[in-house]
Amino acid sequence: MAAVAEGTGNNQTASPMAEADIPSNEERNLLGDIDLVVQIIKGIFTILVSIAAIIYYLKRGDKKSSSNIMARDIGDGAVITQNQMGGQAAQKIENYGLMPRQITGASARVLVSELQKYPSEQFHIQYVGGDYEVLELAESINSVLVEAKWKSEGMAEVNRHPPLIRWGIRLFAPEARPSFDFFLKWLIDHGFEVDPQLTNGDALTIQIGKNR
Question: What does the pLDDT read at residue 186?
């Protein structure tokens, strides 16, 4: 009986390797926490990379847009500048952002109606060359005065340095007359920049410079 008991005790001895392969609960919890932290870090990194890419492309788009607005070629060698007075460069400079000076239909009819009371007044128009807005205004004033039965002595484009007149409109009147006075008052009342002067001669000289 003693021999049997001893043999049975030898058969129940546990293997040390089997016990080492089974992690404890604390070890399993620690491994799970580490894996969770790694996944969180990867997620945060992915989000930061995405945000950085979005910011980069937004800034790149803003730079292109501002560049296109501030200066762009329009095919004929002209450069458009926004909200600037422009200047002389190797190419033609045109103002962009200034409201063009215009004589509207309603205001033109009022002017014609009044100036017709003084027919046959002679006038001559000189305008600074190289500016389409100036040319448009010169042609509009010429049309209105001719419609009012005033006599045009022609229009002349003047290109020189310094310019004939830098800004606005200059009126050279041979004398103070009701016709000239009303025309001057109408221009001022409608927001035109006018410099009136008396000079020798028989005709009213109208000089037109750039807008500002």
Answer: 95
